[in-house]
From TrEMBL:
<dbReference type="InterPro" id="IPR036291">
    <property type="entry name" value="NAD(P)-bd_dom_sf"/>
</dbReference>
<feature type="domain" description="NAD-dependent epimerase/dehydratase">
    <location>
        <begin position="5"/>
        <end position="248"/>
    </location>
</feature>
<dbReference type="InterPro" id="IPR001509">
    <property type="entry name" value="Epimerase_deHydtase"/>
</dbReference>
<dbReference type="Pfam" id="PF01370">
    <property type="entry name" value="Epimerase"/>
</dbReference>
<protein>
    <submittedName>
        <fullName>Nucleoside-diphosphate-sugar epimerase</fullName>
    </submittedName>
</protein>
<keyword id="KW-0520">NAD</keyword>
Length: 329
């Protein structure tokens, strides 16, 4: 008998890659989202379009024959979306409503196991003020003080999932993602994350030009290629560990150095101009001590490999979109 899985948020970047992985492993997969995956990463056996804020849709997609649910559906985006404050009410309301609906149905239909994608954004801002020494070990989450409402909602939802595990016996697995990037992800339009935004800026800028980076560029991050994120999700689901656990890279880099890496890959001669803009915390890096201990695994791919793949893919997307634009005009 094939295992049956539901992927919520499959129209998104990580969700699309996860569907492909589950299909490769021989699962029967149902996927659901507001929209189709825009890059054709739509390998599910059944795709149900709809809004998980609607309890009726949640009731329709969560069926009692499922072995696993992967809950990645959320209202989210990069710094330009999350940190301006303009979307706070929508982010909190939409994501919390989705989680409440999906969990309640999972409880009612007695689904054995559910995965929830949390985020490193739930870590306290006070531990991420020094860009060279951020603290993001799983046990540093409390006293809680995330730097955004997006982070607060993630923290609330972690507790929500764990309370359903305690009270209703549903097995829960929680991962805190650290800046996942790669091909077939949002790269333009305001919701893209930093790696895609920088790759796009470099690809768009003619040789000898200038690219703009928000803030002083000395803020640090680590970025994880999506294949390793999906590998981590699958290993966590197959383990006896509930989490929360970090899924991220420990290869920390400043945003300016990241931009220089992309410029190097492009072969162009470009300069960087730092401008005011939303930046999030000063420093963030995955701490992989716990994942190594519990899953005997941690991501190992060098950042540069993933950046090369992503830059090439975004360059191709730009060519396609420019061609389309010139045909219209």
């Amino acid at each position: 008998m094939k295992k049956k899985a539901l992927v919520c948020g499959a129209g998104g970047f990580i969700g699309g890659h996860l569907v492909s992985r589950l299909k490769k492993e021989g699962y029967w997969v149902r996927s659901t989202d507001l929209k189709e995956n825009e890059y054709g990463n739509n390998g599910a056996d059944e795709m149900i379009l709809g809004d998980l804020r609607n309890p009726e849709l949640a009731a329709a997609v969560v069926t009692s024959d499922l072995d696993e649910i992967y809950q990645l559906a959320a209202d989210m985006g990069g710094a330009g979306f999350v940190f301006t404050g303009e979307h706070d009410a929508a982010i909190m309301h939409n994501s919390a409503t989705i989680n409440l609906n999906v969990l309640e149905e999972a409880k009612n239909k007695k689904i054995p196991k559910i995965f929830y994608s949390s985020s490193a954004c739930m870590y306290p801002e006070y531990n991420q003020l020094d860009p060279d020494n951020p603290t993001c070990s799983e046990d540093s989450a409390y006293p809680a003080a995330p730097d955004s409402e997006y982070g607060w909602e993630k923290l609330f939802s972690e507790r929500l999932f764990l309370s359903y595990q305690r009270n209703h016996g549903i097995q829960v697995r929680i991962a805190r993602f650290h800046n996942i990037f790669g091909p077939m992800g949002t790269w333009t339009g305001g919701r893209e994350k930093a790696p895609a935004a920088v790759c796009r800026k470099v690809a768009e800028t003619p040789d000898g030009g200038i690219i703009e980076i928000w803030g002083d560029g000395r803020q640090t991050r680590s970025f994880l290629i999506v294949d390793e994120c999906v590998e981590g999700i699958r290993r966590l689901m197959n383990s006896n560990f509930s989490g929360p656990v970090n899924i991220g890279s420990e290869e920390m880099i400043t945003i300016n150095d990241f931009a220089k890496m992309v410029i190097g890959i492009s072969g162009k001669k470009l300069s960087i101009k730092n401008i005011p803009g939303p930046t999030g915390v000063r420093g963030r890096n995955s701490d992989n001590t716990l994942i190594k201990e519990k899953l005997n695994w941690a991501p190992t791919q060098p950042l540069k490999n993933g950046v090369k793949k992503t830059y090439i893919w975004i360059t191709e997307q730009l060519k396609v979109s420019n061609k389309r634009h010139s045909i219209i005009h």
